[in-house]
């Protein structure tokens, strides 16, 4: 380790020497020299504090690592024969086995996603998984969001220090999917793909809002694709998913990557439009955003928008599962609580 | 966006009932958030004439008034002349004035949304009062509570108040997210046009909007110079000085327009700017001309559009003072900042009741710059909402001259200096050519050219017929029509998408390919959940100290620059630590033993594609744990390994090799990070027989165990799902033998230094030879591993199951087979048969 600040470097050298002589290695983290460095921060000119503080933290992390290493060496478990099927001297009845299958469970989001996927497979869609770390080019640029466009504000996006993006929607895969499958069009077949995946929004957590959730994107391109095709496709899917006839309605919306754009609502499958807590007494449930793919998006993927048209949609999986299973708090999904998981 | 239906009706017919209108707006314009029946709030409130004002006998500040309501109110007590007595405390009440009277049994409108206050006839200090004479505040028209509202309009007593001021209104609040590309819909005029189009009625913009009138100066006494240093950010800037205005409250009619759409009336100048903004979506701003001169100590106003100089500050109308960001568009003088252009005005040049000369501005600002400035300073105003949608600079002059005429009507004054209109030719309307076929192909309709034409002309597009095509010229206020698809959207929306024919796309019967990786994940999920394990999901983002506790190198993790909290700051580099993090809480919650697993992605900076994007590692991790009371005997390692073996076996992996991780470190940083939490003495690389690394299984290091408060019985594995996908195989079927099978057990005493795998392999070699020589069908399985106390050797036992497809085996044959096995084991490993 090298430190640009002389004082910190000196303390570092001293403490690294001292830790070798200590029985209780962790006491190094309480060394007076280290505390003195922290105490010095508020006395420094404002512009120097951050760098100084950062370097002390580097030193502290490094010492912590040395302490951990020492602990790992001191308390290392006795070696075992890792090639053996079970430990020595263990009676047959107490050897490793699987837990009773009655305890086992699949995560409700994953099993529901599988059900959704199965329906779309039957409808002729193939599937591609979405990325969890992507770039601005795929998340915005290829989707007809110019730099600085206010529509970007609607996606509270997490960014990494390197400028990568935690995708806020599965549409981040549209350009890739269109580019990959455009060969279909030349063969006279449609592009029909669904894209499940985990997405992220910089949003505070509460019972109804998660910063991490699942979406399923759909993309369909062919010659002569109409808005009626879009609505019929979604309606058919939802009727299959909810095992009943539904009414649907659309509401004009704005997305830069579709034109026209809609929000899509279905008659509440739980109360048959009578009004219930799931639909907030309105009889309707807004489920997803959709529209005809914007010609610029097709162009970006090398598809001729004069010849081909297509539709796309993106729907949230978490909410559908919450509605269907009557789950009261979205935070349960990523809680890892066995009380929750074992119910599914 | 609040829409007043009465205001809309000034520009177009509404043939729909409120309910129909709301549902049409929902389906064809945008989501309706709230519908408010304003009229019911004013029911019963009438204009009354004050006939007489007497001092209250028992109270200094109260008056006893005799009013004439034209006799329209029923069920109240009247005097012999049919007039009504009301006690009133307002200082401005006087004989002969027209007032708004809230009779008994009516609700005070301002209390409507809170605790509704219903008036009654009651004695006030011994004098009977029937209802009340209301202030502007009580009527929810303005904020004035210093006196009662004086009605100066020419109406007769007994007229319903709502009739005088259009309060018999319905206010529809529309979610404005869908107007992101439609600046024109942020004004009543635009909404009215759209509603006409939806009803298939031709809309006609008012004359002042359609045709620009030149602004004529009526004097030269106010000097004004304007220069634009930011031509790329301010494509159009109109400004004119107006002399001799008298600032005061607006006429109640004007105030009513504003209050109905949620704007607080301020004074006649500011109200006109707000009225125009609500009507046309074009924000205006008025400065006090004399305050500008005073600031600069100058005799002429020198307005410059410029960026702020370093250190320059401005006090804003909201009471805050800011140092605007370097690239902000400032309306300024060379010496002082006057307003953050398009965002908020400065308090130093605010128009107030002493103002006599004003500068009126009607500008177009760059939407991106406005947005950045607004975000940088947290300033979210009605002007920002409108400006960051990108107004058309082609409408400024029309709006400007209309605003001037309104100012003249309400505040007097005249244009008294040069009219400045600085424009850049950055936006020009251009036509789009589209064929009916193009439209019909996308909407699934069979519209004729004429029908399309009619729909577009309804909202004032100009259409020229060309052979089989329509040349569509958008009106000057539309900035969103660029490609033929935009015209399709226009027609689709005006017709209503819910009226389009639904039809599923047709496809061939060729089966689609399912996604093999998703299939595999689904298989894993099935196998493990049937094996009693629980699938969970944890966040992709973790705390830096979770990485540290797992012994991982934080520097390699992608960090979020705008994390919600330190809890969610880094992209995780493997899944196991996230699972370890869930062990202690579940043990604490009373779960004695469990296996949890997750299938998800991991990222690290060392593993990057050629295009610069991180490789997404597809991972499966599982952890088995048991609390100290119920933990089984022996190392937890073997339990995790058992799960790994079971899973891999079902996925078609057999003859796996387990190598102690302590023997070598992995080549790649990614694998090093995955390895970090494992205890080197009790973890193993899992490899295929061909040496392909599938993952790592083992217990965790002491510091990790402490860091996560793990019970001693904790172990897990992390596998590379892409490797599983690539190398998974089919499990071969072995035909059943018609002959009986027999089994024999064999035990060895062997040095501790020999591993189970070595002995297993040597035994396996003998059996394999026997298979190829004699055609035996053999299976070998472990029976026991015993370590006698204080001894350096181990006893290992196996069960050998043998059969033959063509005959029954003899005892001699079996014994000879076992002898061969023992002999070979002895030669190779000095194993002694017991």
What is the topology?
The complex is a heterodimer of chains A (344) and B (834).
Chain A: H1 6-21, H2 32-40, H3 46-74, H4 108-122, E1 126-127, H5 136-139, E2 158-159, E3 165-166, H6 174-186, E4 191-200, E5 212-222, H7 227-242, E6 248-255, E7 258-267, E8 284-293, H8 295-300, E9 309-316, H9 317-325, H10 338-341
Parallel strand pairs in A: 1-4
Antiparallel strand pairs in A: 2-3, 4-5, 5-9, 6-7, 7-8, 8-9
Helix pairs in contact in A: 1-3
Chain B: E1 2-4, H1 5-9, H2 18-28, E2 32-37, E3 46-55, E4 63-68, E5 84-88, E6 98-102, E7 121-124, E8 127-130, E9 132-133, H3 161-164, E10 170-174, H4 188-198, H5 207-210, E11 224-228, E12 236-243, H6 252-260, H7 268-280, E13 285-288, H8 289-296, E14 301-306, E15 314-315, E16 321-322, E17 330-332, E18 337-340, E19 344-345, E20 358-364, H9 367-377, H10 382-387, H11 396-411, E21 414-415, E22 420-423, E23 432-434, H12 436-443, H13 449-458, E24 462-466, E25 469-473, H14 484-495, H15 516-530, E26 534-535, E27 541-542, H16 544-549, E28 570-571, H17 576-580, H18 583-588, E29 593-602, E30 617-626, H19 637-650, E31 657-660, H20 669-675, E32 678-687, E33 693-700, H21 702-707, E34 713-720, H22 721-727, E35 742-751, H23 756-774, E36 776-786, E37 793-804, H24 811-829, E38 832-833
Parallel strand pairs in B: 11-14, 26-29
Antiparallel strand pairs in B: 1-10, 2-10, 3-4, 3-6, 4-5, 6-9, 7-8, 12-20, 12-21, 12-22, 13-20, 14-17, 15-16, 17-18, 18-19, 23-25, 24-25, 27-28, 29-30, 30-34, 31-32, 32-33, 33-34, 35-37, 35-38, 36-37
Q: For the report, how would you describe the main beta sheet of chain A? A: 7 strands, mixed
Q: Per the principal axes of the C-alpha atoms, what is the gross shape of chain B?
A: elongated
Q: Give the strand content of chain B.
A: 15-25%
The portion of residues forming beta strands of chain A comes to 15-25%
Provide the residue-averaged pLDDT of chain B. Answer: 93
The end-to-end distance of chain A, rounded to whole angstroms, is 50 Å
What is the name of the CATH topology of the largest domain in chain B? BirA Bifunctional Protein, domain 2
**What structural class results from the helix and strand content of chain B?**
alpha+beta
Distance between the termini of chain B: 90 Å
CATH topology of the largest domain in chain A: BirA Bifunctional Protein, domain 2
The mean pLDDT of chain A is 91
Q: What's the number of helices of chain B?
A: 24
How many strands in all of chain B? 38
Helix segment tally of chain A: 10
Assign the CATH class of the largest domain in chain A.
Alpha Beta
Note poorly predicted spans of chain A: none
What can be said about the biggest beta sheet of chain B?
A: 7 strands, mixed
Read across the widest sheet of chain B, the strand sequence of neighbours is 26-29-30-34-33-32-31
What is the level-2 CATH architecture name of the largest domain in chain A? 2-Layer Sandwich
Inertia-based shape of chain A: extended
């Amino acid at each position: 380790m090298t430190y640009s600040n002389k004082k910190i470097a000196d303390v570092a050298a001293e403490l690294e020497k001292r830790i070798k002589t200590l029985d209780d290695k962790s006491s190094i983290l309480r060394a007076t020299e280290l505390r003195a460095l922290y105490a010095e921060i508020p006395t420094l000119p404002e512009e120097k504090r951050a760098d100084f503080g950062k370097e002390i933290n580097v030193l502290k992390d490094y010492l912590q690592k040395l302490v951990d290493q020492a602990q790992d060496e001191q308390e290392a478990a006795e070696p075992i024969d890792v090639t053996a099927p079970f430990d020595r001297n263990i009676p047959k009845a107490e050897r490793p086995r699987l837990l009773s299958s009655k305890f086992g469970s699949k995560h409700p989001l994953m099993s529901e996603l599988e059900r959704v996927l199965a329906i779309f497979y039957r409808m002729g869609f193939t599937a591609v998984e979405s990325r969890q770390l992507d770039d601005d080019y795929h998340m915005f640029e290829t989707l007809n969001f110019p730099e600085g466009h206010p529509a970007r504000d609607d996606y509270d996006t997490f960014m990494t220090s390197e400028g990568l993006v935690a995708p806020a929607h599965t549409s981040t895969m549209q350009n890739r999917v269109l580019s990959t499958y455009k060969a279909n069009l030349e063969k006279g077949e449609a592009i029909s793909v669904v894209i499940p995946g985990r997405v992220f929004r910089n949003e505070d957590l509460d019972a109804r809002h998660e910063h991490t959730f699942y979406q399923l994107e759909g993309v369909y391109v062919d010659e002569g694709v109409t808005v009626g095709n879009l609505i019929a496709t979604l309606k058919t899917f939802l009727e299959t998913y909810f095992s009943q006839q539904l009414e649907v309605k659309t509401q004009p919306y704005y997305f830069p990557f579709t034109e026209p754009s809609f929000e899509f609502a279905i008659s509440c499958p739980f109360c048959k439009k009578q009004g219930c807590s799931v639909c907030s007494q309105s009889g309707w449930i807004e489920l997803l955003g959709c529209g005809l793919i914007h010609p610029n998006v097709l162009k970006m993927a090398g598809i001729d928008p004069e010849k081909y048209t297509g539709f796309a949609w993106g729907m949230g999986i978490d909410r559908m599962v919450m509605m269907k299973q009557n789950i009261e708090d979205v935070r349960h999904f990523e809680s890892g609580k066995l009380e929750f998981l074992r119910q599914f | 966006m609040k829409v007043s239906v009465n205001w809309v009706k000034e520009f177009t017919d509404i043939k729909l009932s409120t309910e129909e209108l709301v549902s049409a707006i929902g389906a064809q314009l945008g989501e309706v958030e709230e519908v408010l029946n304003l009229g019911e709030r004013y029911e019963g409130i009438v204009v009354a004439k004050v006939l007489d004002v007497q001092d209250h006998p028992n109270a200094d500040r109260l008056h006893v008034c005799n009013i004439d309501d034209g006799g329209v109110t029923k069920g109240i007590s009247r005097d012999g002349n049919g007039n009504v007595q009301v006690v009133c405390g307002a200082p401005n009440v006087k004989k002969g004035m027209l007032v708004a009277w809230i009779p008994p049994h009516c609700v005070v409108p301002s209390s409507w949304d809170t605790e509704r206050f219903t008036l009654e006839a009651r004695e006030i200090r011994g004098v009977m009062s029937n209802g009340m004479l209301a202030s502007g505040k009580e009527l929810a028209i303005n904020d004035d509570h210093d006196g009662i509202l004086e009605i100066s309009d020419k109406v007769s007593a007994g007229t319903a108040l709502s009739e005088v001021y259009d309060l018999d209104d319905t206010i529809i609040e529309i979610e404005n997210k869908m107007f992101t590309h439609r600046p024109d819909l942020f004004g009543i005029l635009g909404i009215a046009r759209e509603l006409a189009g939806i009803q298939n009625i031709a809309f006609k913009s008012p004359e002042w909007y359609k045709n620009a009138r030149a602004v004529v100066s009526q004097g030269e006494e106010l000097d004004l110079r304007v220069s634009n240093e930011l031509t790329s950010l301010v494509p159009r800037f109109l400004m004119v000085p107006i002399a001799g205005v008298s600032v005061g409250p607006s006429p109640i009619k004007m105030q009513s327009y504003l209050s109905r759409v949620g704007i607080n009336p301020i004074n006649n100048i500011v109200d006109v700017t707000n009225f125009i903004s609500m009507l046309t979506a074009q924000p205006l701003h008025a400065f006090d001309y004399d305050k500008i001169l005073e600031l600069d100590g100058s005799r002429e106003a020198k307005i410059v559009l410029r960026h702020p100089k370093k250190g320059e500050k401005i006090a804003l109308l909201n009471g805050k003072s800011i140092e605007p960001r370097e690239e902000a568009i400032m309306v300024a003088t060379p010496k002082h900042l006057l307003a953050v252009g398009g965002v908020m005005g400065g308090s130093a040049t605010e128009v107030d009741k002493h103002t006599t000369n004003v500068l009126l501005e009607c500008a177009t600002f760059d939407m991106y710059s406005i947005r950045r400035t607004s975000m940088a300073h947290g300033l979210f105003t009605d002007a920002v909402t409108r400006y960051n949608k990108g107004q058309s600079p082609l409408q400024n002059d029309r709006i400007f001259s209309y605003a001037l005429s309104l100012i003249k009507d309400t505040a007097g004054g005249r244009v008294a200096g040069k009219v400045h209109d600085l424009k850049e030719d950055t936006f020009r309307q251009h036509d789009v050519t589209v064929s009916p076929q193009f439209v019909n192909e996308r909407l699934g309709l069979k519209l004729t050219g004429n029908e399309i034409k009619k729909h577009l002309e309804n909202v004032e597009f100009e259409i020229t017929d060309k052979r089989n095509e329509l040349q569509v010229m958008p009106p000057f206020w539309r900035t969103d029509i660029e490609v033929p698809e935009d015209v399709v959207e226009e027609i689709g929306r005006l017709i209503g998408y819910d009226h389009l024919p639904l039809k599923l796309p047709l496809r061939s019967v060729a089966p689609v390919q399912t996604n093999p990786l998703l299939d595999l994940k689904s298989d894993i999920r099935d196998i493990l959940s049937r094996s009693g394990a629980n699938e969970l999901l944890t966040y992709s983002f973790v705390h830096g100290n979770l990485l540290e506790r797992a012994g991982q190198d934080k520097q390699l993790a992608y960090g979020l620059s705008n994390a919600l909290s330190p809890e969610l700051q880094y992209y995780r580099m493997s899944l196991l630590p996230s699972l370890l993090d869930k062990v202690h809480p579940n043990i604490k919650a009373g779960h004695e033993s469990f296996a949890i697993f997750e299938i998800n992605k991991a990222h690290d900076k060392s593993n990057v594609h050629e295009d610069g994007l991180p490789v997404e590692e597809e991972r499966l991790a599982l952890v088995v744990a048991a609390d100290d009371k119920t933990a089984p005997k022996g190392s937890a390692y073997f339990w995790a390994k058992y799960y790994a073996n079971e899973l891999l076996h079902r996925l078609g992996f057999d003859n796996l090799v387990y190598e102690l991780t302590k023997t070598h470190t992995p080549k790649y940083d990614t694998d090093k990070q995955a390895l970090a939490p494992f205890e080197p003495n009790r973890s193993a690389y899992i490899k295929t027989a061909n040496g392909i690394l599938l993952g790592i299984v083992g217990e965790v290091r002491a510091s990790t165990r402490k860091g996560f408060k793990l019970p001693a019985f904790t172990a897990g594995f992390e596998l590379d799902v892409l490797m599983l996908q690539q190398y998974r195989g089919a499990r071969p079927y072995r035909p059943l033998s018609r002959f009986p099978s027999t089994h024999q057990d064999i035990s060895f005493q062997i040095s501790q230094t020999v591993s189970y795998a070595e002995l297993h392999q040597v035994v396996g070699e003998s059996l394999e030879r026997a298979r190829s020589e004699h055609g035996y069908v053999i299976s070998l399985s472990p029976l026991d591993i015993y370590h006698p106390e204080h001894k350096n050797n181990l006893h290992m036992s196996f069960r050998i199951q043998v059969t033959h497809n063509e005959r029954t085996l003899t005892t001699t044959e079996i014994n000879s087979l076992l002898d061969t096995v023992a002999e070979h084991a002895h030669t190779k490993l000095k194993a002694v048969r017991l």
